[in-house]
Design brief:
The protein is of the alpha+beta class and 454 residues long. It contains 15 helices and 17 strands. Bound molecules: acetyl coenzyme *A (ACO).
């Protein structure tokens, strides 16, 4: 099969949000710390009515309906998540409830976990399946979903929640470029969830940022090398090579710093002194001898390259931060919410996207990361159809309900107190959910969960 990639995308986000400037006041932090310092405006969250299973049930059922897909036409279904409510039973097995009634049980794929990276691993599995000898001509469905919640404190405003389903197959409008994926994985304790009774991670904030930026450095360098190897006609692969760059987004400010980081990499990859002097006339001397690993928290270097790349950021990356700014870190879906944001940013004007080349950086703590790229089709009709299917996203965001920080805190406390209770009927208001949302009805004495649809 040719042009294997993403044929369709469906997104769900919570119907409730808390305003970040109200949260600043409530938390007693300096005004602007969350909104300007982190770049976050609103944070979506779920009551105890929703869990990872319900989010994924909603997104899959919405996608099947919107794209009019026969359950038997899905040959592979997999889930990437780090929201674990059962140490053995997969979310995929729960999703089978949407397929069994149609006699559709021949579906490969299962759950994949490593922090925010599981969705990308699942997507690669699906792409590889379509390109492999096991492929049977049907479509693959990749689901990423998470509920990102933190204990009270500095990390709490970087939460969020959501799920994204990606329909994968040949002749796609969004094609994953072959042979240029670059991966960087290593052992790190930057963010992890060893306490299985709690939804909260243990997080070393500063280390997590350093790990994220060093993973980006490594992936970018290797991506450039691989691209050149396979496209020797391209002498230099730098920021100019991409029309857009999307990133896993723990919070929007980190992504602006990441784009600056790539421009710093470009500076260091420009080894010819004359060329460096011409391209970076104002600061090439000052930073001639800097090393990437010494600069993760170097304010001067950060500022110079933030300023230098500001226009590029506004053009190539800012449009992809819309949902992250409005919903927060969704964990596994985060980078794909960047893709959705980019697609909806053109308000249906396909000409702004046709034939464009999009760089993608996916990161999951612990750590696993990959940079890859997507080529957007030149086929107007194909792209238009994809964009039309996403036209619900912006209006639905406006239909959310704002919750006060006080009530948000109380609702979070209910989650904390009850996350593993049995004989439990959740208390979260069903009427506040969007129509069509699956919700948790009951957890029985054997921890079996039942769901209903609003
Ligand atoms: N107005 C404007 N900006 C402000 C203000 C203000 N009044 N006050 C602070 N700021 C800025 C700070 O200068 C800082 O920005 P800078 O780094 O560009 O200088 C920013 O706001 C955040 O302030 P910090 O003091 O650095 O924040 P803190 O250390 O309290 O927490 C952190 C930030 C570490 C990101 C925390 O939210 C966290 O741990 N989050 C979860 C971990 C995370 O997301 N890691 C990223 C990769 S891993 C992953 O995806 C989970």
């Amino acid at each position: 099969p040719q042009n294997v990639g993403i044929l369709g995308i469906e997104l769900v986000f919570p119907s409730l949000f808390v305003d970040q400037s109200e949260l600043e006041k409530y938390d007693g932090v300096a005004e602007g710390k969350y909104v300007i310092g982190l770049g976050q405006s609103r944070m979506g969250f779920c009551t105890d009515r929703e869990d990872i299973n319900s989010l994924c049930l909603t997104v899959v059922s919405n996608l099947m309906k919107r794209y009019n897909i026969e359950p038997k036409n899905i040959g592979r279904l997999e889930v990437g998540t780090e929201t674990i409510i059962d140490k053995s039973k997969s979310v995929k097995s729960v999703l089978m409830q949407l397929f069994e009634p149609y006699g559709a049980c021949d579906l490969e794929g299962i759950d994949t976990t490593n922090a925010c990276y599981g969705g990308t691993a699942a997507l690669f599995n699906a792409i590889n399946w379509v390109e492999s000898s096991s492929y049977d001509g049907r479509l693959a469905l990749v689901v990423c979903g998470d509920i990102a919640v933190y204990a009270k404190g500095s990390a709490r405003p970087t939460g969020g929640a959501g799920a994204i389903a990606l329909l994968v197959g040949p002749d796609a409008p969004l094609v994953l470029d072959r042979k240029v994926r670059s991966t960087y994985m290593k052992h790190a304790y930057d963010f992890y969830k060893p306490d299985l009774t709690s939804e909260f991670p243990i997080v070393d904030g500063k280390l997590s940022i350093q790990c994220y930026l060093s993973a980006l450095d490594n992936c970018y360098k290797l991506y450039c090398e691989k691209y050149q190897r396979h496209h020797p006609e391209n002498k230099v692969v730098g920021l100019n090579h991409f029309d857009a760059l999307i990133f896993h987004t723990p919070y929007c400010k980190l992504v602006q710093k990441s784009l600056a980081r790539i421009s710093l990499n470009d500076f260091l990859l420009t080894t010819d002194p004359q060329q460096r002097k011409e391209t970076y006339p104002s600061f090439h001397e000052k930073y001639d001898t800097i090393k990437l690993e010494d600069t993760y928290f170097d304010r001067d270097v950060e500022k110079i390259f933030m300023d230098y790349s500001k226009e590029t950021f506004n053009q190539k990356t800012k449009p992809s931060l819309f949902l992250a700014n409005q919903v927060g870190n969704m964990y596994t879906p985060s980078v794909y919410s960047g893709l959705v944001s980019l697609l909806v940013s053109v308000d249906g004007d396909v000409n702004k996207l046709l034939g464009r080349h999009v760089g993608v950086f996916s990161y999951g703590s612990g750590l696993a990361s990959t940079m890859y790229s997507i080529s957007i089709t030149n086929d107007t009709e194909k792209l238009q159809a994809l964009l039309d299917k996403l036209s619900y996203v912006k209006p639905l965001l406006e239909q959310r309900t704002k919750i006060s920080p006080q009530e948000f805190t109380e609702l979070m406390e209910i989650r904390v107190q009850n996350s593993h209770r049995t004989k439990y009927e959740p208390s979260g208001a069903i009427e506040r959910l969007f129509p069509g949302t699956y919700y948790l009805k009951y957890v029985d004495e054997m921890h079996r969960r039942t769901y209903e649809k609003r």
